[in-house]
Amino acid sequence: MSIIRWGVLGCAGIAKRAVIPGIQQSETGEVKAIASRGIEKATKTAAEMNIEKAYGSYEELLADPEIDAVYIPLPNHLHKEWTIRAAEAGKHVLCEKPAALNAEETAEMNEACRQAGVVFAEAFMYRYHPRYEMMKQVIQSGEIGEVRSLHGTFTFNNAKDTGNVRYRKDWGGGSLYDVGVYPISAARLLLGEEPAAATVQALFSPDHDDVDMMASGVLEFSNGVALTFQCGMWAFFENELRIIGTTGRIDVPSAFVTNENEQDHFFVTTENGRKEVEVPLLNQYALQADVIGRSIRTGDPLPFNGEDAELNMRVLDACLASARNKQRIELEEA
């Protein structure tokens, strides 16, 4: 299998801290080029990250015939434009979450990639780690009985950094966009279905351009099952998931962001006691790059494709509408 040659549009922290090293550690990919809005920043980042090429504009990178795929870690309001432009340039796309500002934009991106015959994936790295398949196997085995509810929390406190792009309303800022998408997507993945309705209470901060700095919500699934979740950018750090069944539960202490040098096991508790389920120490960003790389080369379908990104954004649209309007929103309404 030939190596996938990646280009990166932007020098965002998540790219430098996690995604670029993940691609570099993958079996299928290499980071060939990086672009910024100025050549100085691109050159500096390329030198720091051992990347061969640096470009002073995104257009230049997309014009490079040696680039097969691009990773887009730009602010949320730019995802649609540069995904479509990348597709039109014949590049496969890994776009940082959330895919866009709403489901309508995501559908346009997905269609552009379909028309161009390129792969389009949303960057939820945690889904590629075998932990989640292992959790699904525990659920399907009946060890914890019937699933009754899920609870997810992803919070951190960055409120003092008022110039952060996360606090620009018109750029798609807010905690639901930034971290709420994780427990939402996890519930959809583990339950294998879409929620029927959303109810969300949020703290909108005038000191942070009126974005939601904290949100607590309920997603209604079938058979009375619900996801309750908290997400926030002005709260103590938590990164946890709990799945409660009729005869047991699963606890995931590091549900989304894993510890780089530690194995993030999960725990199953039943009437027989509490046991630790050991999972392999793997780089979930490298796993993400490999699954996408193999899909690019073989044409095999992605486990999480553009349609999944659209469905996730529909739920997020409903959550945002509920928080703003202070009412329960059915997904058909969103």
UniProtKB/TrEMBL annotation:
| One GO MF term attached to the UniProt entry | nucleotide binding
Q: Which UniProt keywords apply?
A: Oxidoreductase
Pfam families assigned to the protein according to its UniProt record, in alphabetical order: GFO_IDH_MocA, GFO_IDH_MocA_C3
Tell me the ranges covered by the Gfo/Idh/MocA-like oxidoreductase N-terminal domain, including all copies.
Answer: 4-122
Domain GFO/IDH/MocA-like oxidoreductase residues, every copy:
133-250
The record's annotation in Gene3D superfamilies points to:
Dihydrodipicolinate Reductase, domain 2, NAD(P)-binding Rossmann-like Domain
Q: Which domain of life is it from?
A: Bacteria
Q: Which residues form a coiled coil?
A: none
* Entry-linked PANTHER family: OXIDOREDUCTASES, TRANS-1,2-DIHYDROBENZENE-1,2-DIOL DEHYDROGENASE
Give the record's family classification.
Belongs to the Gfo/Idh/MocA family.
Record's protein name: Oxidoreductase
